[in-house]
Design brief:
The protein is of the alpha+beta class. The chain contains 18 helices and 20 strands. The protein has a five-stranded mixed β-sheet with strand order 8-9-10-1-11, with helices on both faces. Strands 16-15-17-12-18 form a five-stranded mixed β-sheet. Strands 4-5-7-6 form a four-stranded antiparallel β-sheet.
């Protein structure tokens, strides 16, 4: 018996991998994010946390890659005029003016499948078009879908899309989604109820909704989303059997969960602010990979322009002049988040300072603007107008985000010095974005960020036909209610200008008008901070709106 035990021990000693603790297999990757999505439907509500999950579970025809150029995900190749699969033609705008349109032919990859084994086909493209162009759907990109005049189907994998306008991004399909017609079409029977009846809301673990390397297998609303491998994914096999995306909406708790081992990493796209990451790196950096990625993230204050106080341009100018944004960048963010003059990032080739108005810290000028607008000091230090109304402004943001809450306090302090009272009220991100912002229910200022693609055309955030209303089922992202025919015309002109030099002039005019009208108050451009375990490789930030999870199948464990 003793000889048998010794022999058995000798055999076991040669098999350490088999008998290693389960944790070393690393079958599960747990990712911490700071927000929980308001919905998982790709067509409804723009929210970064949702984009992060969708990039791992539902791929698109085209996206922008790491080099900031368009690349195929589910298409075989990008169409070009030179190759003959993009053909210009004479078209007309909605107003009947002549314009050049384009017919583009795409082919869907043969190996594209939904996670229930159904091939991705042209039916899914047609369904997305049907959803997107219907104003009752409440989608965010209505105009883009309505500018598609026709889709000619050549077979289950090949189609030609006729766009009203030939624009500078024409090889890309942009935000045109691929939607699962075979499982979700029934939910669209009543378009106005689609956002509530879609399976993404009522049955999110249905495998037919997902076509990426992972599919959603479990949802704990407000807490976490569990992903498992898509058995019909034909691309590179992802390293992890399961990925758990855990929402921890208090960023201090997010850091604590990383240190306790409850999560393996913190997503750069929706995680710690730069100040928290810098402090974390000083304390714990030796145990983790800490990556800082400058990106096209624009932190700003959306302004409710229908508010009679904020509708006055002098007030908006005064709010900016009263705040030392350079000091905020230097003291809170170690100089890594430069002050924004507008929505166009200096990383983007279209950025210019030529003739663009700026609003440097100048409290005396802020006071002069307030008094010129009829607001004078009141008995308690808060300014009042001739009717005795106090100059009090609501400021909302995502509750639990320590950095934003700190910036709120700093802004309120600066504004108090010039006689402006600030009322702070915050909400959980899924409520703030899913209800308050998207339905224009914030009474004053809303602090959040836009993450954009390179040379992003801000049609949905600035054009007047993108203002969310009850009539359009809260579609669009122009939450401020900004309506300026000159801005509408500029955006239209930029879209169809193929000459890069001429387009640069139009972008300059856009930036001057934006900084003049101030429909939004610019704060700064954020940098993403990724906190990763040392054993994880392959996470590559892009610096734009297409998140690192678009390449999650390339992530690997290296012990």
């Amino acid at each position: 018996m003793r000889r048998f035990l010794l022999a058995l021990l000798a055999i076991l000693a040669t098999l350490p991998a088999v008998w290693a603790p389960a944790a070393q297999a690393r079958d599960t990757l747990t990712i911490g994010v700071s927000q929980y999505p308001s919905t998982l439907n790709p067509m409804i509500d723009a929210m970064l946390a949702k984009s992060y999950v969708l990039a791992a579970t539902q791929r698109q025809l085209t996206i922008e890659g790491h080099d900031w150029e368009s690349v195929c995900q589910f298409c075989v190749k990008l169409p070009t005029i030179e190759d003959g699969d993009a053909v210009p033609f004479d078209s007309k705008t909605e107003a009947g003016e002549p314009v050049t349109g384009v017919r583009k032919t795409y082919e869907i990859r043969d190996d594209a499948y939904w996670a229930d084994g159904t091939p991705v086909t042209t039916d899914d493209v047609l369904f997305a078009w049907e959803l997107g162009r219907n104003p009752e759907t409440g989608g965010d990109t209505l105009k883009a879908y309505q500018d598609v005049l026709d889709i000619e189907v050549h077979g289950p994998k090949r189609f030609t899309i006729t766009d009203r306008k030939l624009d500078y991004r024409y090889p890309s399909m942009g935000d045109f989604a691929v939607m699962p017609a075979h499982v979700d079409r029934a939910a669209f029977a009543e378009p106005r109820e689609y956002r509530n009846r879609t399976l993404y809301q009522t049955d999110p673990t249905n495998p037919g909704l997902w076509n990426g390397p992972y599919r959603v297998s479990e949802v704990q609303v407000g807490s976490q989303i569990t992903l498992v491998r898509n058995p019909y994914w034909k691309g590179p096999a992802p390293a992890f059997e399961r990925v758990v995306v855990r929402a921890i909406e208090n960023t201090s708790a997010l850091e604590a969960n990383l240190l306790s081992g409850s999560i393996d990493m913190i997503a750069g796209e929706s995680g710690l602010a730069i100040d928290q990451a810098l402090a974390f790196e000083k304390r714990q950096g030796g145990d983790f990979q800490v990556i800082y990625q400058p990106s096209l993230i624009y932190e700003h204050l959306d302004v409710m322009l229908s508010n009679p106080i904020l509708g006055d341009l002098k007030i908006r100018q005064a709010l900016l002049h009263a705040v030392d944004r350079d000091a905020i960048n230097a003291r809170l963010f170690a100089g890594k988040q430069p002050v924004a003059t507008g929505s166009v990032n200096p990383l983007d080739w279209t950025y210019t300072t030529d003739g663009v108005p700026t609003y440097p810290y100048d409290p005396d000028k802020a006071v002069a603007l307030l008094e010129a607008a009829g607001w004078n000091p009141g008995p308690d230090g808060v300014r009042v107008n001739g009717e005795g109304t106090r100059l009090s402004i609501s400021l909302m943001t995502t509750g639990g985000n320590r950095s934003r809450e700190l910036v709120q306090q700093v802004l309120a302090d600066y504004w108090k010095r010039v006689g402006i009272d600030t009322v702070i009220r915050n909400e959980l991100p899924r409520v703030f974005f899913g209800e308050t912002v998207s339905k224009r229910r914030f009474p004053g200022l809303a602090m959040f960020a836009w993450l954009s693609a390179p040379e992003h055309l801000p049609r949905t955030t600035l054009q007047s036909d993108s203002i969310p209303t009850e009539a359009n089922n809260w579609g669009g992202q122009n939450y401020t209610g900004y309506a300026n025919p000159e801005m509408d015309a500029l955006i239209d002109a930029i879209e169809i200008e193929l000459d890069r030099d001429k387009r640069a002039d139009l972008w300059a005019a856009f930036q001057r008008l934006y900084a003049t009208d101030l429909p939004v108050l610019p704060l700064y451009f954020r940098a993403d901070s990724y906190i990763l375990p040392k054993w994880l490789q392959g996470v590559r930030p892009t610096g734009h709106k297409y998140t690192s999870t678009n390449w999650i199948e390339e992530w690997r464990v290296v012990e």
